[in-house]
Specification:
The protein is α/β, with parallel strands linked by helices. It is built from 10 helices and 14 strands. The protein has 2 domains: about 40-55 and about 85-230, 3-Layer(aba) Sandwich (Rossmann fold), CATH 3.40.50.300; about 235-310, Alpha-Beta Plaits (2-Layer Sandwich). Strands 6-7-8-3-9-10 form a 6-stranded mixed beta sheet, sandwiched between helices. It has a 4-stranded antiparallel beta sheet with strand order 2-1-4-5. Strand 7 (about 165), helix 6 and strand 8 (about 195-200) form a beta-alpha-beta unit. The longest helix is centred in the middle third of the chain and has 16 residues, at about 175-190. The structure holds adenosine-5'-triphosphate. Adenosine-5'-triphosphate binds near residues 48 and 50.
Length: about 325
């Protein structure tokens, strides 16, 4: 393995799913270029249907690309398939696993599947690390949803891959377990594993990731370090209901990104990192308006994705 090559290096990757009797052909990836540096915790965000799973499945060897190239730790997925697969572990979204095995057996089977010699297996160590050792010999069907999810992470780790991909690791998981999983991801990262995670939760990306890329309709529309990305996502709206509805925006608000709706409610778009609510309210006051209601709204991720698509000029 070449230690200087990026964890993932994708160039011009496309995927078109062929038409079937039920659906037309679908261009799920439209020429993705992406580099994931070694040692990063990389967030891959995007709305439903953006192409995240397609991208991950191509890296995992589960879906065949249409064109372009992808390398994992320098190994080309099409030409050095065995080394590329050995370099990556993928934790899938859904909890589908064989319920008739115990966690220990499930890990041993997976290790066998990857050809890990018995002397190099770490099943017990992994169970300890994931807080599952006391369930070592229980049937998987007796585990809680959260435990099954942790076991899935364990299964992705049996061959000690330098790159770990987690697809929506905490979807539908309660806050406490989410934090436990986050702690474990951070622990793995500290031990040198490069982590890539897809998520719908901005908070998750904000807490864990050092770099974030956004994929939308099969294209990477933004790719930045976390702080730069969060400042782009830092859009808020101040919604002001005047006591007496007004029909036109007061002149004092003309320098702001403000609109008025047909009920006389004023919305002012601003950035929480740079704009001051106090200044905005001073301008409302200067217009002689009294206020019945005041609230701030955050855009949901869909809005953010849309605005980034727009901002990137695509
Ligand atoms: N096997 C398939 N055959 C045909 N079309 C597919 C197939 N798999 C995915 N698609 C389509 O390709 C597009 C990208 O899907 P993909 O699952 O990669 O998106 P995603 O970003 O992972 O979405 P989600 O967040 O919902 O998992 C979607 O329009 C989807 O309907």
């Amino acid at each position: 393995m070449s230690d200087t090559s990026p964890a993932i290096e994708i160039k011009g990757l496309t995927k078109t799913y062929k038409a079937s009797r039920k659906s037309p052909a679908k261009e799920a990836l439209k020429g993705v270029d992406l580099v994931v540096p070694r040692g990063s915790i990389f967030g891959l965000l995007g709305p439903n249907g953006a192409g995240k799973s397609t991208l991950i499945n191509i890296l995992a060897g589960l879906v065949t690309k249409s064109s372009g190239s992808a390398k994992i730790c320098g190994y080309d997925i099409a030409q050095q398939t065995r080394q590329a697969r050995a370099s990556i572990g993928v934790v899938p979204q859904e909890i589908a696993m064989d319920v008739f095995f115990t966690p220990y057996q499930a890990l041993e089977l997976q290790a066998g599947y990857y050809g890990v010699p018995k002397s190099e297996r770490r099943s017990d160590e992994i169970l300890h690390a994931l807080g599952l050792f006391d369930k070592r010999d229980a049937y998987v069907r007796q585990l809680s949803g959260g435990m099954k999810r942790r076991l899935l992470i364990g299964k992705a780790l049996v061959h000690n891959p330098p790159v770990l991909i987690l697809d929506e690791p905490t979807a539908g998981v309660d806050i406490e377990l989410r934090r436990q999983l986050w702690d474990y991801v951070v622990e793995l990262h500290k031990r040198g594993t490069t982590i890539i995670l897809t998520t719908h939760y901005l908070e998750e990306a904000e807490t864990l990731c050092d770099r974030i890329a956004i994929i939308h309709q099969g294209e990477v529309v933004a790719n930045d370090d976390k702080d730069t990305m969060l400042s782009r996502l830092d859009k808020r709206t101040l919604v002001i209901t005047p006591t007496t509805p007004i029909t036109a925006l007061p002149k004092t608000l003309s320098g702001l990104d403000a609109q008025i709706n047909d009920k006389g409610v004023i919305s002012i778009n601003y950035r929480s990192g740079t704009d001051s609510i106090t200044d905005m309210l001073a301008k409302v006051k200067a217009a002689g308006l009294s206020i019945t209601d005041l609230k701030t709204e955050e855009p949901d991720l869909e809005d953010v994705f849309m605005s980034l698509t727009y901002d990137s000029g695509t």
